[in-house]
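User: Flavin-containing monooxygenase. Structure?
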Amino acid sequence: MARRVAVVGAGISGLVCIKVCLDEGLEPVCFERSDDIGGLWKFKESPEPGFSGIYRSLVTNTSKEMMCFSDFPMPADYPNYMHHSQLLRYFRLYAEHFDLKRHINFQTTVRSVRQRPDFSTTGQWDVVTVNRDGEEDQHIFDGVLVCSGQYTHPVLPLGDFPGHETFTGRCYHSWEYKDADAFRGKKVVVVGIGNSGGDVAVEISRSAEKTFLSTRDGAWVVGRMSTNGLPLDMTAITRLTHVLTLLLPKALVNWVAQRDLNHKYDHRLYGLMPRHRLLDKRVVINDDLPGQILQGALVMKSNLQGFQGSALVFEDGTVEENIDAVVFCTGYKTIFSFLPPSLSWGPDGEMTLYKRLFPPSLECHTLAIMGLIQAKGPIMPIVEMQARWATRVIAGLCHLPPQETMLSVIESDRRRNMKSYSCPKQAALQVTYISYLDFIADEIGVRPSIFRLLLRDPVLVLKVFLGPYTPYQFRLTGPGRWAGARQAILTQWERVAHPFKTRVVYEPETRLCGLCSPWMLTLVGGALIMTMLFKYFELLDKLSRAPGRHVPQ
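Assistant: Predicted structure:
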């Protein structure tokens, strides 16, 4: 009899967990509070408490080839960076292709997840749900995969700013933000310079009278485009760059990368310069923020200090008068109210998880928290690999180390991350993208061997090692192998180019002169090599004839 696994949520994590459960011969039962799939990426006109919220104009900041599921490439005609509505369509295609929706109970809320009395021997869970009619149901499951997300409970830190109660304007959180219509002709301050803060500030600055962006630490800002207009992540996230980053001095790599970025726009001049080095923290992905600063539509400010009626006071002593609205892009708190309070929570409120996935305190590792993680790379491949690992642990095909070892690894990771992130909650979430995925791939047995590929398929190994770190690599071998993985890797750049081919581009007629033709170049090159060899042997002959001279062998 197949083991039954509860999947909490039908967003991107929930969908891939259902699919992977089916791959491993498990029986998934998914509970979704809303009436549709998509989670975070399902746009709602009005914010709903307890649910994620996105803005109308949101576009992905990772490209389609890097963020797709490993055995389901995105359609070739999709743009490389997609509007949220198009990404949702991809999820619908994925769910339809693998027939996932029949495993989902919509408008059903998980009220509680608790260990059964015999948990130490069975690893089973009592799960209580409430359906759309308010009826309560009790279930027994062999495993639980929590996919309810981390962007549902916004943090609005008004208490940190003296005088906020005297403010005559309105304070928002970016979770509530949908578009800039409400800010037209107004003076607005945006607090926080993460990806959401940058997007919101840029969009508001196009219609507001004046927009200010307040930041405590600053940020390195990069665009989505790399050399020749190619997607940045496809050129930057490769196994080769990862190896070079590990081998070369970090200070040198930071200096080179920062110098290159500052050639585009000087971060110090633009008021963006952060306290940290480029590789120490995640960058802000934004194509338009520097341009809005250049136009004067967006003004950088230091950290917000407090309110004085309609005025805002900043840490550098400056004051901005007659502010109409403040938008806080200050993050979210993680809440899993249905989980047992006994699960490991750190001293600063962060959830203690082995490899950001498994609570180490459980006797049987039949529960995993999906996607509670941050990395310098797309989240979807991470969640898929987490799902592949977690389902194999639940099925008894993979095993975790002893609790002492897991706690030691957690503490080691925390100490390393605290060097870059002073906030313990932020530090706990961070992983190194390629190292993390390769670790899980080793645990599952799907990490491609560069040496074996070199002997068996030298064309493919160049794509895997030198090319973009696309998720298809983890379907080349081992459990879950996909026959189309090799072809997907070989054709990935074709899918990048496809959406650009909307117009025939006429090239000016150019004729290669006879001397520049490939055949002539080959002929001339061969002749030069033959001449050099002839001269070399001629020299050897002369040396051999000279008395007392030794001829090199």
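The radius of gyration is 28 Å. DSSP finds 18 helices and 18 strands in the chain.
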